[in-house]
Amino acid sequence: MTSSANPVELHLGDLPDGLDFGGSVAIDTETMGLKPDRDRLCLVQLSAGDGVCHLVQFPAPPLNADRSATYSAPNLTALLADPTVTKLFHFARFDVAMLSRYLGVLCEPVYCTKIASKLARTYTDRHGLKDLCRELLGVELSKEQQSSDWGGAALTPDQLRYAASDVLYLHRIQQRLDDMLEREGRAQLAEDCFRFLRARALLDLRGWEEIDIFAH
Known about the structure:
Elements: E1 8-12, E2 24-31, E3 41-47, E4 53-57, H1 74-81, E5 86-89, H2 92-103, E6 110-112, H3 113-120, H4 129-137, H5 157-168, H6 170-183, H7 187-205
Parallel strand pairs: 1-4, 2-5, 5-6
Antiparallel strand pairs: 2-3, 3-4
């Protein structure tokens, strides 16, 4: 599917050969729910920040079948593991865990706009992607499809537009947040938090979801 405003390319099962996202790729996931051990990965959205979104859709595995064939995506997993490409997320903790659970790869290096916002925008408690787009970019996002069924064989035009919107603005948001972090002297603290995200995702997957392991 292609839109004149924001081109959207839909791929089944993997990215095509030879696709280059440059040194930074914005990534998001759509799933059947928020429990990586229960809810399957349905869609991965990616953008190089050029106004184009690539969507990788994973069909439902046959009942009682080995899911490895469904989630064999060598081009996508190679990109996620590439240490020369920064993976840019909003709420990376969830997406990194989901991608690890289903694709068997821990993303690195990682940048999370939600963490960056919490460190830079301490004057507010509104750190959702919709809030960041509105304040930092003057863009209004629709979240009507957020809780829709992403597991169907065919996605609707509204779902495709919604999925694309979750990655199309992350590069511009990162630039604005980086300026704020630098101004407030918190850029290094943000980098330290980003590096911990791999461990945080593994803790979630292994059962330490909301327990503060640093507590007494």
